[in-house]
């Protein structure tokens, strides 16, 4: 039985993770066994390993390239880019409107856009998340997604309740959020005023996509903030039967599937990854 996730970085440096024996991990392994038909999307998708200035510059450059490509086709982004949370919320809303949701890529814009513009819209989403990560205290992580892999499986609310954890732990592999939209937690962090029916997407679908955290974060501190946000948008959330931060579709949960095997210190590992921010291969052994 496959029990290890191995990520090979630049210069043959390997990260090895012991896969948990839980139903959630087994569901993820099944998706991983089907991933080979799709290429890895952005194998350099590392966040938080550079200096604040480096992370900011990388994010801004990516955003500006995306905007230039999109607007050269059709100038749908009509605001000057501002590196503020409101400016990032606006760009994320552009992505949601013109890219479409997982099962709703039906807009005339999407169907008429050339592949370069479609890719720029997809990259705009990644760039916004990179910019948001650069604004926070350093939280190094690697995000692995498989380009074009259908998101067809959903994690039941029961499994979310039983195996979700309101914490992020150094060296742990988690299911990646793969909806197009934002959770209540995301909306709260961003104080998002562009909230709409299509913008709100609680965790539901999962895939072979995952992220690896190289930091620790207690998410229980989000509960009061989420509660305040729900109450400030009470009419909207009442329609979704969400009344409390304790509701499963509002709680700030993560879903772990594997844990790092490493004998050095956290700082030593961060330093080693910092100079190897490119994934060569991901395997299950």
Number of contiguous helices = 10
Percentage of residues assigned to helices: 25-40%
Number of domains: 2
Query: What value does the Rg take, in angstroms?
Result: 19 Å
**Stretches with pLDDT under 50, minimum 5 residues:** none
Tally of extended strands?
A: 13
Overall body shape: globular
- The residue-averaged pLDDT reads 90
What key attributes describe this structure?
13 strands; 285 residues; alpha+beta; 18% strand; 9-stranded antiparallel sheet; 39% helix
Provide a brief overview of the structure.
This protein is an alpha+beta fold. It is built from 10 helices and 13 strands. It is 39% helix and 18% strand.
Describe this structure in words.
By secondary structure, the protein is α+β, with helices and mostly antiparallel strands. It folds into two domains: 23-45 and 138-275, no CATH class; 51-137, no CATH class. It has helices at 23-32, 52-73, 85-99, 108-112, 115-135, 157-163, 184-190, 222-232, 234-238, 266-274; strands spanning 4-9, 14-19, 40-41, 46-47, 141-146, 153-154, 167-168, 172-175, 205-206, 210-213, 217-218, 256-261, 279-284. The strands form three sheets. Strands 1, 2, 3, 4, 5, 8, 10, 12 and 13 form a nine-stranded antiparallel β-sheet that branches. The chain has a two-stranded antiparallel sheet with strand order 6-9. A hairpin with a 4-residue loop joins strand 1 and strand 2. Helix 2 (52-73) runs antiparallel to helix 5 (115-135). The longest helix has 22 residues, at 52-73. The radius of gyration is 19 Å and the shape is globular.
């Amino acid at each position: 039985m496959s029990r290890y996730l191995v990520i090979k970085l630049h210069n043959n440096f390997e990260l090895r993770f012991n896969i948990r024996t839980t139903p959630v991990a087994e569901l993820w392994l099944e998706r991983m066994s089907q991933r080979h038909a799709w290429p890895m999307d952005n194998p350099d998708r590392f966040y938080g390993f550079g200096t604040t200035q480096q992370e900011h510059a990388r994010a801004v450059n990516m955003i500006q390239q995306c905007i230039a490509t999109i607007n050269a086709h059709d100038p749908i982004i009509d605001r000057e880019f501002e590196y503020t949370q409101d400016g990032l919320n606006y760009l994320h809303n552009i992505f949601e409107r013109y890219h479409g949701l997982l099962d709703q890529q039906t807009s005339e814009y999407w169907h008429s856009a050339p592949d370069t513009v479609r890719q720029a819209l997809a990259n705009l989403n990644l760039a916004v998340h990179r910019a948001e990560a650069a604004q926070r205290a350093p939280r190094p992580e690697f995000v692995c997604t498989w380009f074009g892999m259908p998101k067809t499986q959903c994690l039941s609310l029961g499994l979310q309740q039983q195996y979700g954890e309101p914490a992020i732990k150094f060296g742990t592999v988690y299911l990646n959020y793969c909806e197009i939209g934002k959770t209540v937690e995301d909306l709260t962090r961003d104080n998002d005023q562009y909230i709409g029916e299509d913008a709100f997407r609680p965790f539901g679908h999962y895939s072979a996509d995952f992220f690896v955290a190289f930091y620790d974060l207690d998410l229980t501190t989000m509960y009061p903030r989420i509660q305040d946000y729900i109450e400030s948008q009470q009419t909207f959330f009442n329609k979704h039967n969400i009344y409390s931060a304790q509701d499963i579709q509002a709680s700030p949960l993560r879903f772990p599937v594997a844990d790092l095997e490493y004998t050095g210190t956290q700082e030593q590992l961060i330093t080693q990854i910092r100079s190897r921010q490119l994934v060569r291969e991901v395997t299950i052994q």
